[in-house]
Structure formats: structure tokens, C-alpha cells
Specification:
elongated, 74 residues, membrane, transmembrane helix, mainly alpha, transmembrane
Length: 74
């Protein structure tokens, strides 16, 4: 978890310097840093809940009813 935070901290510093060096608008800062924060929180959530949650469960939840409908007709 600390490694994830360090990597995202480095990305944050790089992005901040890039935006400042090119005199970007305030809105661009919000978009870039907001998306970085959302990705960081999502990645941390996946790391914390890796034992309880898996991508397979999401795919089954989304496509399970469709699969049942398709195989009911056969």
C-alpha cells in the first residue's frame, strides 16, 4: 500500500510540474489531478478488498442475466 502511494505521489509531482511548466488553466489542473485522485482511490480499494472482491464477480453480475436468457431459449 505504501508502494502504491509512493508511485502515485511521483506521478502527482510529475503532472504538477508538467502543468506548471506549460501554464495550463485551472480547469486542467482539476481534471488531471481529480482523475489521478479517483484512480488512486480505486486502486487502493481494489488492493484492500482483493480477498473479498474480484473482477469475475462483477462480470458475472453484469452478464449473468444475459447468459441465462440466451441459454433459456436453446
Amino acid at each position: 500500500m505504501i508502494g502504491i502511494a509512493l508511485v502515485y505521489g511521483c506521478i502527482l509531482l510529475y503532472e504538477w510540474k508538467y502543468l506548471a511548466a506549460r501554464n495550463r488553466r485551472r480547469r486542467t489542473y482539476f481534471v488531471v489531478l481529480g482523475s489521478l485522485a479517483a484512480m488512486f482511490l480505486g486502486f487502493e480499494a481494489i488492493y484492500v478488498f482483493k480477498e473479498k472482491w474480484a473482477l469475475v464477480n462483477v462480470v458475472e453480475t453484469v452478464f449473468g442475466p444475459i447468459q441465462k436468457l440466451l441459454f433459456m431459449k436453446q
